[in-house]
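Work Package 3 (structural annotation) set out to generate three-dimensional models for the target panel prioritized at the project kickoff. During this period the team completed the workflow that converts sequence records into discrete structure tokens, so that structures can be stored uniformly alongside our sequence database. As a representative example, we reproduce one entry of 120 residues exactly as it appears in the project archive.
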Amino acid sequence: QVQLVESGGGLVQTGGSLRLSCAASGRTFSSYAMGWFRQAPGKEREFVAAINRSGGGTRYTDSVKGRFTISRDNTKNTVYLQMNNLKPEDTAVYYCAATLGNYYGPFDSWGQGTQATVSS
């Protein structure tokens, strides 16, 4: 099983940027499709973005299209989420996830999460 550790969260003003990272260990990283999810206070966890094993395919939830970019570096066993033009509604705990399936999931390995807070 793969172990996932997120980093890069923090506090930023509306319109600002954050870059989240997720470092993977335990099994061959390139075997996994990867995803980012988020959970805001009082809400269910929701899908944000996913990337296939090679990095050549990505998908996003509509609310982040054009603002967020998911990418991966298989030589560093890391997946990234670049978040630009952040809005207060992006405030959430962001989770990295992995699946041996395709990038539609289901995702069955999860990190502990990193908090991103966007102030208005």
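The two ends are 39 Å apart (CA to CA).
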